[in-house]
Description:
Strand order of the largest sheet: 3-2-4-5-1-6-7
Structural class: alpha/beta
Strand content: 15-25%
Number of strands: 12
Helix content: 25-40%
Largest sheet: 7 strands, mixed
Number of helices: 10
Shape: elongated
Radius of gyration: 20 Å
Amino acid sequence: MDPDDATPGDPFVHPALFYRGDEEYLAGTVPFLRAGLDGGEPVAVAVPGPRLGVLREALGDAAGDVRWLDMTEAGRNPGRIIPGVLREFADRHPAGRVRIIGEPIWPGRTDTEYPACAQHEALINLAFAGREVSILCPYDVAGLDAVVISDARATHPVLIDRDGERASGDYAPGRVISSYNRPLPEPSGAARMSFDLDALPRVREFTCRWALHLGLDPEPAGALEVAVHELAANSCLHGGGKGTARIWSEDGQVVCEVSDAGTITDPLAGRRPAAMSPLGGRGILLVNHLADLVRMHTGPGGTTVRVYMRV
């Protein structure tokens, strides 16, 4: 399916809400929530922590009928949001429409995180095509860069602001997916090892030893070890039988990447629940659930997956 193809009559609804301040935020979100609750629809809200309190207070007693998630935790890694937040809720309610507010981009998201955020918003359209799901995505136009707002116009077929609702003339999610599939910047001071199938056990030892040396506590170091092993195993099975692992420290995070000669052709790889992944991608799904951030570049020349863990 072409991400830019909008199917007439598609029951999936994915508007962007452009707001300035609490008044516009509530004017755009509360009626959306109340319409779902009044219609008996399952309703969830995944927004940054401070916004949770604002919405709870505005809904009053009805807040008890909503599932609440702090997006800064549940969606810290944008690659986790579709399988672990949106699909996790929607799939529990397969009969009838499901209504969700999801705010994955907020002031404070870093330049390193943002490309994964933009791709996530574009991929929602593929992940939910044909489903009776409404996902409203608020954007703080006063606090976000103009590039973010421009990308939102490309990733959402419908736009809502103080002037009302309209179709987006800039809708082109496929362009956003491809434009942020960029080669990742070269690190400095990275430790490196090459591996093949016989060397997979050494990848785990290499990752754990360096993760602890670079400042990770044992628990996140263990999670990084598992994540990198999954990626290295994928390289051996699907990426030409071998690859390279590198690890370094960057901006208060330990970063490990795995590169190989393979190409990932499924844009939703790692973003489907495991039982719904006939095309593979389960290893990347596990990595998305373990990591604080996952960045990827893939193309005819090979694939690099970079995993970030906060110190």
